[in-house]
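User: Sequence recovery, please. Input:
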């Protein structure tokens, strides 16, 4: 089939359909009627000679041909956007764009509130859709279905662009009534009961046990280097839950200092410096090469970078 006889707008339809897998929702996102969306899907099927989406017990699912087309489609549309937007800057103040950001509980509690403050000033109509690391895969990020991943990574696809937002140290949270609050040293730390909090990388880990040192992350790896091991009594994947657990008299929580900072005005908790060395870690922002030149995406990356650089640890009092 000659390309001049193909309606290229249908590629936009197909991109949204494969992402949403729902005709009604796709029509709403494109600002067209459901019959128009259904007609577009019919024309796509005729043009490509494939059903593209088939109805199953789990909803509309893409065919093998559609799955193969999806990454190519994202590349084509990204290039088209680059051509169209090359001379146009993103108008943040009038935009109602939805940005999808995948981040951990740590990133959501330490960075996102400050980002929202800046958005309220500069882009009041912009919406953030915050996803957790378990919601999507690196493949979906690579295809541009997620705008940004803000996290700590053990590994990352080489094609991704990335930027370090900040480095963070570790602090200990414990109840003001904890008997070791005023005598906090390595000996009392090791005698205490501890809350383990998930790593900020992709995947929190399943089936963990206190003896599984190699999978437990920074704190336990640091203890292992000095030949020690802490007594973990509860595992959690949420930093806010860990802070609540720290209010219990017998528990100690060791978390990134920026997460501990959120509790500095809590009279029920005290913040202490870990009695052993734990290496700092980096919080990074990563995105698909398909979005590298998108003007709205560039604007959001700059905003987040500025917010991160301006959010230091001043005011965090640790003994």
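Assistant: Recovered sequence (319 residues):
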């Amino acid at each position: 089939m000659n390309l001049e006889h193909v309606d290229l707008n249908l590629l936009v339809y197909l991109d949204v359909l494969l992402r949403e897998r729902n005709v009604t929702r796709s029509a709403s996102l494109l600002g067209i009627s459901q019959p128009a969306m259904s007609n577009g899907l019919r024309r796509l099927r005729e043009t490509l000679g494939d059903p593209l989406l088939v109805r199953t017990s789990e909803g509309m699912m893409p065919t093998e041909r559609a799955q193969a087309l999806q990454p190519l489609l994202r590349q084509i549309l990204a290039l088209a956007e680059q051509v169209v937007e090359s001379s146009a800057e993103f108008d943040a103040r009038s935009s109602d764009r939805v940005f999808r950001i995948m981040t951990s509980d740590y990133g959501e509690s330490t960075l996102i509130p400050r980002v929202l403050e800046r958005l309220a000033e500069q882009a009041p109509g912009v919406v953030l859709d915050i996803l957790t690391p378990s919601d999507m895969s690196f493949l979906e990020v690579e295809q541009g279905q997620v705008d940004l991943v803000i996290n700590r990574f053990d590994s990352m696809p080489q094609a991704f662009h990335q930027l370090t937002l900040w480095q963070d140290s570790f602090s200990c949270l414990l109840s003001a009534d904890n008997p070791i609050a005023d005598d906090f040293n390595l000996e009392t730390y090791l005698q205490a009961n501890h809350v383990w909090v998930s790593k900020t990388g992709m995947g929190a880990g399943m089936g963990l046990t206190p003896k599984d040192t190699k999978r437990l992350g920074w704190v336990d790896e640091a203890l292992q280097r000095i030949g020690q091991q802490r007594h973990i009594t509860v595992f959690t994947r949420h930093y806010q839950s860990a802070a609540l657990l720290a209010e219990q008299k017998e528990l100690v929580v060791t978390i990134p200092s920026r997460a501990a900072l959120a509790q500095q005005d809590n009279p029920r908790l005290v913040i202490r410096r870990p009695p052993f060395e734990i290496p700092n870690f980096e919080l990074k922002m990563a995105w698909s090469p398909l979005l590298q030149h998108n003007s709205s995406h560039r604007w959001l990356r700059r905003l987040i970078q500025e917010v991160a650089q301006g959010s230091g640890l001043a005011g965090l009092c640790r003994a």
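The first strand starts at residue 53 and ends at 56.
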